[in-house]
Design goal:
To bacterial alkanal monooxygenase alpha and beta chains. Keywords: Oxidoreductase. There is one protein chain. The protein is an alpha/beta fold and about 325 residues long. It has a single domain, classed as TIM Barrel. It has an eight-stranded parallel barrel, surrounded by eight helices. Helix 1 runs parallel beside helix 13. The longest helix is centred in the first third of the chain and has 18 residues. About 45% of the residues are buried.
Length: about 325
Amino acid sequence: MKLSILDQSPVMDGKSAAEALKASVKLAQNGEKLGYTRYWIAEHHGMEQLASSVPEVMLTLIAAKTNSIKIGSGAILLPHYKPYKIAETFNMLATLFPDRIDLGIGRAPGGSAEASIALSGNFLENVKKFPEKVTQLFHFLYDDFPKNHFYSTTRALPKPINPPQPWILGTSSKSAVLAAELGTAYAFAHFMSEQDGMDVVHSYKNMFTVNKNLKKPYCIVTVNAICAKTSERAEDLALLYCLKTVIQVREEKLDLSTKNLKKVIQSLTTEENNKIKETRSKMVVGNPIDVKKQLSKIKYEYDADEIMIVTITNDYRSRLKSYELIANISF
């Protein structure tokens, strides 16, 4: 089974954004040593708990500090940007680091409404133009606008020997249909989707249009996974993750140390408890044997070509250990 890494560059309690970004570099380096196929870093805006707001900057650093692992964006949020600029940026990366660059493209805002307005104005209007923007971006990447097109003589330079590999990322049938129509690779976010992911992925594969971008459909399914030596330890880490995810909307800062954990759990509302159960239900959690069974089941049910893992624990050491244990599983 091909395994890959999605990194949201989390800022752990008591750590700084600089420390989070250094941990991201270390994760990519370890991922390469452990045999992971690719490493992607996400884009978020105005979120103090997530440090990566400009993936392309981090990709330059990470590519320079690794040798062979494929690296990419998970994702560049295209509604915020002009396709030409993204094509130039990723062509530059593909020129510097040949055959290693993935260009993951998404349509989410990646932050608050205020952050979206600060980035690009009317976000909803830009989302409506997403298919058009993706098509234009592909034309810039492949330098194949029709001769009579306004941009036919406009080139996204430098031009690499091989263009970066484009991917459509999504959580719904809209993204799957677009990826299929464009004949490009697709990554489905199992860990954050509320739709029937298996139907979404199967529709992508059934509708796929073969073209010069990709000869046959290729799909990644991204899973939130936490692995530890024992199931009990893994469940403890998962509980802390779920608690942080749910209670971060509270105005007060809560102490999630072992001595205070019981008190926090007792303070949860019914709505918060339900949200924790929902978050946990989408996760893969356990010891290596249990995680192997769960990941294998997801791969089979989705008919996935690759599994990408996103892991957030309460410290960088246990996060690295989780990726290490999963990489060492014999699938």
